[in-house]
Design goal:
This protein is mostly helical. Helices cover about 85% and strands about 0% of the residues. The chain has one domain. Helix 1 runs antiparallel to helix 2 and helix 3 packs antiparallel against helix 4.
Length: about 140
C-alpha cells in the first residue's frame, strides 16, 4: 500500500499538533506546580519569621535586644505576610501596619541618634524606610 504525500503531510501536521498540545499542557502544569511551591515557601518564611518575632520579644523582655530589633523582626514578618496577602484590602491593612511600625522605629532611632547611640546613616535609613512605606500605602490605595 502506498501512502500519498498528502497523507504523510497530514500525519506530520497531526504529530506536531499533538506535540504542541502536550508541551503546552506540561508547561501549564509546571507553572501551577511552581506557583504552589512558591506559596509553600512563602508560608514557611512567614512561619519562621513569626517564631523569630516571638524570640526577639522574649529577648527584649530580658534586656538582650533593643526595641528597634523587635520592630525590625515585626517588619520582616509583615513583609512576608504582604507577599501572601491576596485581597487588596488585606494588602492595604498590612501596608498601613508597616507605616505605623516604621513611624515608631523612626522615632526610636531618632532618639538613639540624638543620644549618640546610632549613626547618621541609621537615622536616615529609618526615615527613608518610613517614607517608602507611606509611598506603598499611597500607591495601593490609589489603585482601587
Amino acid at each position: 500500500m502506498m501512502v500519498s504525500s498528502k497523507s504523510c503531510l497530514a500525519i506530520a501536521l497531526l504529530a506536531v499538533a499533538v506535540l504542541l498540545v502536550s508541551t503546552r499542557t506540561s508547561a501549564q502544569n509546571s507553572a501551577e506546580d511552581s506557583g504552589a511551591r512558591v506559596r509553600e515557601l512563602l508560608v514557611e518564611k512567614r512561619d519562621v519569621l513569626a517564631k523569630y518575632v516571638d524570640r526577639t520579644e522574649s529577648q527584649f523582655a530580658t534586656g538582650e535586644l533593643s526595641s528597634v530589633e523587635v520592630l525590625d523582626a515585626k517588619l520582616a514578618l509583615l513583609y512576608a505576610e504582604l507577599e501572601l496577602a491576596g485581597a487588596s484590602e488585606d494588602r492595604v491593612k498590612i501596608l498601613r501596619r508597616q507605616v505605623e511600625l516604621h513611624k515608631t522605629k523612626e522615632s526610636q532611632v531618632g532618639e538613639l541618634y540624638a543620644q549618640g547611640n546610632v549613626t547618621f546613616k541609621e537615622n536616615v535609613n529609618a526615615v527613608v524606610e518610613r517614607i517608602d512605606a507611606e509611598i506603598a500605602v499611597s500607591r495601593a490605595t490609589s489603585e482601587k
